[in-house]
Specification:
The complex is a heterodimer of chains A (276) and B (285). By secondary structure, chain A is an alpha/beta fold. Chain A has a single domain, classed as P-loop containing nucleotide triphosphate hydrolases (Rossmann fold). Helices cover 35% and strands 22% of the residues of chain A. Chain A has 8 helices and 10 strands. In chain A, strands 1-10-9-4-8-7-6 form a 7-stranded mixed β-sheet, sandwiched between helices. Chain A is globular, with a radius of gyration of 19 Å. Chain B is mostly helical. Chain B is built from 10 helices and no strands. In chain B, helix 3 crosses helix 6, helix 5 packs across helix 6 and helix 5 packs across helix 8. The two termini of chain B are 38 Å apart. The chains are: A alpha/beta (276), B mainly alpha (285). At the A-B interface, helix 2, helix 4 and helix 5 of A face helix 7 and helix 8 of B.
Chain lengths: 276, 285
């Protein structure tokens, strides 16, 4: 376990599981985001995200964690700084080919389309035929445990199942980076725990990097290898912490003293964030 | 104690499998209720006309109306064909042009800002007030065309405004999804905006269908004997001749026609939305 204030955290973050000199998948350098009304959403964001890691952004509301995630997804412009994808191909205009999937706070499914068509959507938007990708669509539906529900409509599903469809849609293009913006916040605790368990399983099978935004200390400790804590006004990183517990993590981990110790650690860091 | 990392995914809510609806005697009675109310109303009407010896020039009995209806059927049929052509023509034109301009209007903020006030102006100006002008412009030799235009003017606006609202109603989260995958403008329109707008467009079509009947009737009233041979003119003509049973027969035909056109649009709406839209879903518990 080690945590350091952001000022001491430079480009290469100490990583227990991987060799420290590895090239990051995405690198945010000095990224600022100021809204037109003058609100500073992000100030000097420096963050390296490494291949295959599970990283959480944790912080009080208004700390810019969702904004940061959207910038990683390429969904929002930033005011200054640089986003770099050292491992990706760049197109003719120099734009990196971002291979990302995004799971929003809401399942954001098309109510008029079946589960299959909802998951097929990213491919449809890239002009890929249904016959070409239907095996892949079925594969991700099986991965999230909804193989039997390909022909159901979203309204026929429970909240947790809708979220699973949303995860399947994000994974269907085999993204290198899966971004999740408080995906389980609106669900009940039982469903949330079940989905957390399954998410770790999916993560290990899909072999992608996950960036997970949450405001739950427990969720972040249970899921991640690395927790980045952010503070508000202006939104910034104030520290980070490595959760050095092996996977697969089970209910035993949830009940262990190690888990509680991590939660206390993160909680203390969050208190620092709230005070600053 | 055994601990499993992955749980089963069967977290669907109770009542996921819809129970089979049972037809009970209460349901049958419920279906018959409107018919019973109608029969009671007509029965009272029939009885009162005979009992109070009301003149048929004031209020004919339902039986007299039906007799006239059967006797006058050939004339009514001709008038129906005329009115139906105008109404359906105006309705279809309103649907097509309404969707087209609704999409066009919302395609760009500036276009909307420029033309929206004129669309509203067109809506709030009573059609009866412009009718004589339209008839003069189009010419008395083509009265059917002026009537088509007038009926279209009445039916057009709900289509326009509903399409415009519908096009802007796409879920914000879904727009983000389309943005994430860099969907082209056409794909966004085809796969997001149009399906989102569909319930609005269909609701507009239902309002429009009713209004196109009203539009056709108003147009016939204004055109008068200038060339109209429709049901509305039949009503005016029968009124002048004090043939009240014939007047009621034409009115009856008009109601039946209006109801059928409404029923057709309602059915189309039901078919297109039944699998997903709240308005067509039945409560299942």
């Amino acid at each position: 376990m080690n945590y350091a204030p952001a000022s001491l955290t430079t480009g290469a973050v100490p990583m227990p599981d991987v060799e420290p000199r590895r090239r990051p998948l995405v690198r945010a350098q000095h990224v600022d985001k100021t809204y037109s009304n003058g609100t500073i959403a992000l100030k000097n964001l420096n963050l390296d995200v490494y291949p295959h890691e599970f990283i959480s952004l944790l912080g009080p509301s208004g700390c810019g964690k969702s904004t940061a995630l959207r910038i990683f997804a390429g969904l929002g412009a930033y005011t200054s700084g640089m986003m770099d994808w050292p491992q990706s191909m760049h197109d003719a205009t120099g734009k990196p080919e971002r291979e990302v999937g995004f799971v929003f706070q809401e399942p954001t499914l098309m109510p008029w389309a079946t589960v299959f068509d909802n998951v097929y959507l990213p491919h449809r938007l890239k002009d890929r035929r249904k016959s070409e990708v239907q095996d892949r669509v079925k594969e991700v539906l099986d991965l999230v445990g909804l193989g039997q529900f390909a022909n159901a409509y979203p309204r026929e599903l429970s909240g947790g199942m809708k979220m699973r469809v949303s995860v399947a849609r994000a994974l269907v293009t085999r993204p290198k980076l899966l971004l999740m913006d408080e995906p389980f916040a609106a669900l009940d605790e039982i469903t949330r725990n079940r989905l957390s368990n399954d998410l770790l399983d999916i993560w290990s099978k899909a072999k992608c990097t996950v960036m997970f935004v949450t405001h739950s200390v427990f969720e972040s400790v249970f899921l991640s290898q690395r927790i980045v804590v952010m503070a508000a006004r202006p939104g910034r990183i104030i520290g980070e912490l490595t959760v050095d517990a092996p996977y697969p993590r089970t209910k035993e981990f949830r009940l262990s003293s190690e888990y509680s110790a991590y939660c206390r650690e993160v909680s203390d860091l969050l208190d620092v964030a709230m005070r600053s | 104690m055994t601990i499993q990392a992955t749980a089963s995914v069967d977290d669907r809510p109770e009542g996921f499998v819809a129970p089979k609806p049972r037809t009970s005697i209460v349901d049958v009675l419920d279906t018959l209720l409107p018919f019973a109310a109608g029969a009671l109303f007509l029965g009272t009407w029939e009885f009162l006309v005979h009992y109070l010896k009301v003149s048929k020039f004031i209020l004919p009995a339902p039986s007299a109306i039906v007799t006239t209806f059967v006797k006058e059927w050939p004339a009514i049929y001709v008038a129906l064909k005329y009115t139906a052509t105008i109404t359906i023509g105006a309705f279809v034109t309103a649907v097509v042009t309404g969707i087209f301009f609704g999409v066009l209007l919302t395609s760009h903020k500036r276009i909307e800002r420029t033309f929206w006030p004129y669309a509203v102006t067109m809506q709030v100006t009573p059609v009866v007030a412009i009718a004589p002008l339209v008839i003069i412009w189009v010419g008395l030799d083509r009265v059917w065309l002026s009537m088509l235009i007038l009926a279209w003017m009445v039916a057009f606006f709900p289509m326009l405004s509903n399409t415009a609202v519908g096009m802007k109603s796409a879920d914000h989260g879904l727009r983000n999804v389309f943005e994430l995958y860099e969907a082209s403008r056409w794909k966004r329109f085809r796969y997001l905006q149009l399906p989102s707008a569909l319930p609005y467009i269909l609701a507009g079509a239902r309002i429009s269908s009713g209004l196109s009947v009203i539009g056709a009737v108003v147009a016939e009233f204004v055109a008068g004997s200038g060339g109209s041979r429709g049901l509305a003119f039949m009503i005016v003509e029968s009124g002048t001749l004090l043939n009240i049973p014939r007047m009621f027969s034409a009115l009856l035909m008009l109601s039946i026609f209006g109801m059928s056109i409404w029923y057709v649009t309602a059915t189309i709406q039901k078919i297109l939305l039944q699998r997903w839209h709240e308005s067509e879903l039945k409560q299942e518990n």
